[in-house]
Amino acid sequence: MDKLTISGLYLHPLKSAAALIVEALNFDSRGPQFDRHWMVVDQNGKFRSQRHHPKMSLIEPVLHAGRLSLKAPGMPRIDLGQPGSSQSVTVWDDTLIAGDCGATAANWMSEYLGVMSRVVVLTQDSLRRVDRQYSSGEETVGFADGYPCLIASQASLDDLNQYLKPPIDMRRFRPNIVISGSAPYAEDQWQKLKIGDMIFDLVKPCSRCIIPSIDPDSGEKQMAVNQVLMAHRRRGRNTFFGQNAIHQGRGELRIGQTVEVISEK
């Protein structure tokens, strides 16, 4: 059997902004700590993303001791303060309570995106359950699209890159954990993984939208990426890359850790 190891770990503090490439991820009840912990919303509390605002990919998060700062082209660095008032926000079909990061953050984001926006953060009162169809109904998640963790394999990206010039990197797919040592798309068959003291249940393939076509270094759309996904990873009406996962327990993952496949589908 192939020896599987963690070769990449990514944290996305602000939903739909740039990723942080990290050496370790600490998991709490919602998933990787501080992952999708902050979010941009419109005047009605609905989340904004790269799908309609590709330049969000150029917002650089700086995380220090649980506090977030943001940088973006043509904008001064801003430090997000503690949340003030609470408001209701929506992520797809879910509604939850979040803390508002204030007028300064709202003005900064509105100026950068060119549309009225606010920045919100998870609080202790923010409760969002993972879809009961794929969970026990007790697991929680933050502002991620639906699941606490996304897992992909390096071999799968290498396979796609055979058809792309220039090749793309894993940031486009926005995973948390990248595993090396497998065959391409082996993760499609994995059902349960053990990494250190933690267990990960791979519960649902990740369907892909327009975001993989957005160059994280320029914010420009490159539709050849989605065309390759359509040609090689289409199942019915959707394309898939990576696996949504739910973790059991809390712990820390590090680059180089061994990954054990406990069961397959």
Report strand %.
35-45%
Helix content, binned percent: 10-25%
Largest sheet: 7 strands, mixed, barrel
Give Rg in angstroms.
18 Å
CATH homologous superfamily placement: PK beta-barrel domain-like
Entry keywords:
265 residues; mainly beta; M1 Pyruvate Kinase, Domain 3; seven-stranded mixed beta barrel; 19 strands; catalytic activity; molybdenum ion binding
Can you tell me about this structure?
With 265 residues, this protein is mainly beta. It has a single domain (4-264), classed as PK beta-barrel domain-like (M1 Pyruvate Kinase, Domain 3, Beta Barrel), CATH 2.40.33.20. It has helices spanning 103-113, 154-161, 224-232; strands at residues 4-11, 20-21, 24-28, 31-32, 38-41, 60-64, 67-72, 75-79, 86-91, 94-100, 118-121, 149-153, 177-180, 190-195, 198-207, 234-235, 238-248, 251-254, 258-264. Strands 1-13-12-17-15-14-19 form a seven-stranded mixed barrel. Strand 12 (149-153), helix 2 (154-161) and strand 13 form a beta-alpha-beta unit. The longest helix is centred in the middle third of the chain and has 11 residues, at 103-113. It is globular and about 50 Å long. The two termini are 17 Å apart. The relative contact order is 0.20. This is Molybdenum cofactor sulfurase. Residues 122-262 form the MOSC domain.
